[in-house]
Structures are given as C-alpha cells and as structure tokens.
Amino acid sequence: SREIHLASRPEGWPVDGNFRLTEVPVPELQDGQVLVRNTAMSVDPYMRGRMNDVKSYVPPFQLDQPLDGGAVGEVIESRSDALKPGDTVLHGLGWRDYAVLDGARARRIDTSLAPASAYLGALGLTGLTAYAGLTKVAEFKEGDTVFVSGAAGAVGSLVGQIAKALGARRVIGSAGSAEKVERLLELGFDAAFNYHDGPVKEQLAQAAGAEGIDVYFDNVGGDHLEAAISVLNKFGRIAMCGAISQYNTTEKPTGPRNLALAIGKELTLRGFIASSYNQYADEFAALMAGWLRDGQVSYDETFVDGLENAPQAFIDLMKGANKGKMVVRLG
Ligand code: NDP
Fold it and tell me: Model-level pTM?
C-alpha cells in the first residue's frame, strides 16, 4: 500500500518536497479491525496548521509519519461485528490507499442519498461547519443580510445557500476570480465580487449598499475581516471560521485596525470549531437532505485523481484552484 508522509515542515507555502510517497506493507487485521480500500480523501486548509510543530485543537502531524484526514472507502476485510465487506465507510485515515482501523472508528454511510465523496464535504463536517457557524455561532435569523468570504469554496458556498434557504434578506460573497464570482451568482448569491479587483472594503460597501450587513462568516481574516467590521450594522455578528489569508504567510498579520468599532456597534465576534457542534449533526443532516432534494442547495466538487497528486491538490486548494470541495479520488 502507498501512503503520504510529511517529509519536512513547510515554511510559508508548502511545496512538493515537504511530502513523500512511501510504500508500506498492509498490517494483519487485529480483532475488531477493518481493512478499507480508500476511494476518496479530503484535503483541507486546517491541515496546514497541523504541518507546523505547534499545539492547536488538533495535534501536529509527525515527521516521517503518514498524514491523516477525512476519507471514504470500501471495507475489504472485517474482523469487526459492526461492519462487513462491501460497506462504504467514512473515517479519519486519509492520505493512503488502504487503511486499517478499529471498526468503531469508521462510520457506515448511505450512498443511496449521495455519492460517498459528498460525506467529505456537504454532507459531512464541511456542511456542519457552514450550518452551525451560520445559525449557532453567528445566530443568523430570517431577514439578515449575510456576507461570506471564501464564498466559492466548500464551506463558503454552503453558507451562502443555507442563508438563502433560511430566509436571508441578501447574501453577498467574495472569491478570487471572475469565474468564481459568476458561479456564486448562479448559486443564488445576490451579489459577489472578486477580492483581487480592488480594496475589499470598497467592494463590500458597494455590494452592501445602505442596508449594510448583519452577519459576516469569516473564512479569510485580514483585510476581509477589517472590511466586514467597517460595514457591519449595529449588533452585527461575526462567525470566525478560518483565516486562510494568514495560513501560509511568514510575516506577522496586521490586525483588524478598526476593531474598536465593535464597541459602538455592539458587535459580537465569535470563533468556533465545527466539532464542538456535533450535537447539531442530525438536525443539520435532516435539513440538508431536504435542501438537496428541493434543489435549494447544491454543492460543487473539484476532483484530483491519484494519491501521488494529493500533496499538489492540497497546495492548489490553498491557491484557490478549487470550486467547492477539493477531493482526491483514489484507486
Ligand atoms: P475552501 O474550499 O474554501 O478552499 C480554500 C479557499 O480559500 C481557496 O479556494 C481560495 O479561494 C481561498 N483563499 C486562499 N487564500 C486566500 C486569501 N489570501 N484570501 C482570500 N481567500 C483565499 O476550503 P474550506 O471550505 O474547507 O475552508 C474554508 C475556511 O474554513 C478555511 O479558512 C478553513 O480553515 C475554515 N474551516 C474551519 C473549520 C472550523 O471548524 N472552524 C472547519 C472547516 C474549515 P479563492 O480563489 O477565492 O481565493
């Protein structure tokens, strides 16, 4: 079997040389374990943080050890009572062709509802991030105007569509290309702009108009966050989901220089980690199934083929090569 190891820790932008494709034997199954042939794996921005040797809410990847992350696959062999060969499962041992793990750490998924890869995105943690961040963290309510950055990405594109489905007054998105902006309008965003076209603050103020915005779902940080603080209405709420503009820089970020505006506007800024909202997974799954069925929400996926191309897919993800969820197909 093949797996991808972390060969060295990236400084700034990751490069191909930080990764190594390694051949390893598939271990014998122990009682309770299953052998899974992975068919798809997720690459996610949070993995960049795990490549640094720092303590965070997930432990860092270890040098010369396989990376891990979300994956789906087919059970080939089972010594677990819970799973049988042929089952399609979701688990946490991506970045490899074959995974051996405890049956209790793999969850059977229903591929009659959606293809397996959707459980890495819209029907999985990506979807929960969008839903919980919007409704629980930012306390979205009907009639709110919502701005979301990274809007053509996996989380962002769902945030905008979920907000519309829940009765947003208007939804505004920002993304990194004209093609992505066009896609956002197709997905039902009321306004969208390319943040490369000019200062975010000016473009956001123009898109928001006199009505301003009530909720900002932040995937980007930096100038996007500063712009949102300027444009937010009184009692506005910010869900701090990610700060991808800072993940690969080696300079110290400049803060939102206008943070003091939060006082007079009585803003709420709240960070969150999706896994802390697991208690809403069932509520979300039921709603999402309905929205997908009714066509109120649709999800994009960008596929890259082959385990050997997973490191590049990860690098390209952070450079914006994806529309919707970036997924690496295996086997
Ligand atoms: P995406 O699918 O959104 O992919 C990342 C996107 O970020 C790229 O496509 C790129 O699009 C954009 N991007 C890269 N650099 C910049 C930049 N300097 N400024 C603006 N945009 C940039 O990934 P996800 O949907 O998986 O994740 C989105 C965010 O949510 C990330 O910040 C991630 O860390 C966070 N997250 C947080 C979770 C939590 O529990 N808090 C859980 C999951 C994700 P473009 O072409 O538009 O630049």
Answer: 0.98
